[in-house]
Amino acid sequence: MAVVTDPRTGAAQDHGPSSPAARIGWLLPALVLALFALKPLGPLKDPDAYWHVVAGEHLTQTGQFVLNDPFGAATEKVWILNQWLPEVLMHGAHAAYGLAGVAWLLCLGSLLVGVAVYAACRRRSSALVSAVVLAVTFVALSGSLSPRPQLVTFALAAVTTSTWLLTREDGRARWWLVPLTWLWACSHGMWFIGPVLGGVVVLGMFLERRLSLGDAARLALVPVLSVAVAALTPVGPRLFVSPFQVSGVTGLISEWQPPGLADPGLLAALLLVAVVVVDQVVRGRGEWTVALLAVLALVLAVTWSRTTGLAAVVVAPLAALAPQRLTRQKASAVPRRERIAVLLSGGLSLVLAAVLAPVAAASPGIGPNGLDAALDRLPAGTVVCNDQADGGWLMLRHPGLRPTMDTRVELYSVERIRQYLSFVAGEPGWQAYTSRVGCTYALMPTDAAVVPVMRGTGSWSLVAEVGGYVLLKA
Length: 474
Known about the structure:
By secondary structure, this protein is an alpha/beta fold. The chain folds into two domains: about 15-45 and about 80-355, no CATH class; about 370-474, no CATH class. It has helices at about 20-25, 30-40, 45-60, 85-95, 100-120, 125-140, 150-170, 175-185, 195-205, 215-230, 265-285, 290-305, 310-325, 335-360, 370-375, 390-395, 415-425, 430-435, 450-455; strands spanning about 5, 10-15, 65-70, 80, 385, 400-405, 440-445, 460-465, 470-474. The strands form three sheets. The protein has a five-stranded mixed β-sheet with strand order 6-5-7-9-8. A two-stranded antiparallel ribbon has the order 1-2. A two-stranded antiparallel ribbon has the order 3-4. Helix 2 (about 30-40) runs parallel beside helix 14 (about 335-360). It is globular and about 75 Å long.
């Protein structure tokens, strides 16, 4: 049996008879990728998805990337459309096929995330190991695979990490990462992760003495230029300040809190980090680049719930390489049958999703859908005090109404959000909130603490009650 060494990874390649793992391993990535494509299919439950569609529609009609919010009745800050590219795609899918189109677009986006992670892992490990790491990454991402522009960040983070690891191996600058970052900056507010990954790898290479100071400076131009071109998006230089709009209210947002210790996504991400750490310890020689990327992944995993999946994506290629070194399992080039299986899996999954979406996602997964008729009868411009999770639903389903709260938290001050929370809880002084925002109707879940308080005052009358929601009139 002839064994050669892969110059890219240092792992042995087996060109002899297939092992039992090799005989079935080639099929496993295709199965996991089908999971990526089909598992997210269903009614749209993410509150953000609805206002993202509205944002795309408004942009196509007005061409405004920075605007005073025309939808909410109580927003206080400028709305910066720094995620406009996927929002336009979401609007296009919704305009053509309704909510089913958005649901199918989610399946496509989730599949592309899986393919990006698979490609990054498969370059460095066998099909079997790649499939296992991909499955663990899926668990880490499972809470984040929703119809939101963050899918772009997951996919491009995998591409960028893998590309910079290639640069670490051959010292070549990949200048195409600069225009890629421009597209990323048009798609999601966490585009800066790309330049950060580049900076981390360049620093690691310099500390490993793979680069002279001059060579490090040359490679560092790639992340520096990537940051520079972000100012050239249609949003302009205001793109750089847009992420800080949310900084004052992060303490009030669940996804900006640390994940729970029993969170499956966190455990999956930590498992991948642990594999990399064990590999470094067993090998007995630390590598600065690997260590810095592992630390970055660890910080992303434990600091915020919304970045736990991103941590797994960043560390996945290193976690795929580690078992090859630890177990000495032989890696092989991607055979034709594996490529065909992956293509068929992705294509057939998307076709199946297209067939099922009109039924699976025909109706919204959130919102007081039973009150549509009653809400349609309200005059245009009516201000409605609503549950935050239903704000985007109202913006899309009843564009003539003006909700007082939604999940675009960066448009609200801390004080306004605290007033809203006090109102929902029915705390003393809740009437001040309704006066400040000017709502004449209230659309709330029946079990909201404020509902019996409002009805008990005699100042609010019941208009309708359906499906766990009430519509009250002042």
